[in-house]
Amino acid sequence: MPIIELKDVSKLYGFGDATTVALEEVSLTIEKGEFVAVMGASGSGKSTLMNIIGLLDRPTHGQYSLSGRSVAKLRPNQRAKVRRDRVGFVFQSFNLLPKMNVLENVALPLAYKGMGVTRRLKQSSALLEQVGLSDREYFMPRQLSGGQLQRVAIARALVNNPDIIIADEPTGNLDSESSRVVMELLGEIHRSGNTILMVTHNPELTRYADRVVYMHDGGIVHDEKTPVGEVPRRARRAFYLFQRKTVDDDLAGVSALMHATPGKPSAPRKRGRPLGSKNKRSRKAISAKKREGK
User: Which of 9, 133, 154, 207 could join 59 in a cystine, given CB atoms 3.0 to 4.6 angstroms apart?
Assistant: First the structure.
């Protein structure tokens, strides 16, 4: 029996002419123990899909079953309980509470579960040892590096022993060395039997997955099994074909807009001539004439 099964799931936002289709009749089956990487450009529906699978959002249409149980019509308190007990989240921005130390952050989901203080701290300490941070239990989040913060977030995601780990760009804020440590840790978690869904824009990270799903315009356009340790050629092509828009792109657009005078189109600049080169030549000519007149 699949652990996750979606049939013709759609998600719409807005009403009437302002309706936006975030997901369009997506069908997806994930078996227990799979490591699935989800790739696609910004706006392709990846986050919406993860929110529905993680019970943070409801589908507008379609069916969603978790271990054979339909969860689409669960009441809010029932959804919260299933989400707490069966799904662990790892976010790009870590989402640790700054006024709690590392041990308290990891133990927080167990507090919501009603577990006693001594037991939850002991269980959290064991997980911090598993992720190599037993000597940082009483540090505050501001005292840790990005890679250490993400390992704390992974420990927190594992503390309830969930069936599914959802990792949304888990290395997005990390340097290459910290990214490798975090991905090796996720690989170990996968080998221990956990089901992992990871959203990523980096094709190199798909080498840790045994399946890659590609999304575009709210739908799944390709789904392939892949040997662990190899980067599929399709993943590399998808990265260059559907690159996400960056902050630099936005700033470039704003800069171009500021240079254009309202109501008057900016004149196209000729190729091969550096900006301001004409002015430089004019200044040189004026200087030459002054010298001749002396």
Answer: 9
Q: Cβ distance 112 to 161 under 8 Å?
A: no
For the beta carbon of residue 129, count every other beta carbon within 10 angstroms: 13
Give a yes or no: residue 253 inside a domain: no
Nearest partner of 171 among 201, 141, 195, judged by Cα: 201
Angstrom distance (rounded) from CA 125 to CA 142? 19
| 61-75 pLDDT tens trace | 999 999 999 997 789
Residue 5: in which H helix or E strand, if any?
strand 4-13
The pLDDT tens digits for 24-50 are 999 999 999 999 999 998 889 999 999
The domain that holds 19 is classified in CATH as 3.40.50.300
Domain extent, residue 93, equals: 4-248
Residue 206: which of 221, 186, 178, 191 has the closest Cα? Answer: 186
Scanning the chain, the segments in alpha helix (DSSP H) are 46-53, 76-86, 102-113, 117-130, 146-158, 176-191, 233-241, 247-259, 277-293
- Tokens matching residue 229: 């340790």
Number of domains observed in the structure of the chain: 1
β-strand pairing of 35-40 with 211-216: parallel
In a domain, 35, yes or no: yes
Strand 87-90 vs strand 164-168: parallel, antiparallel, or unpaired? Answer: parallel
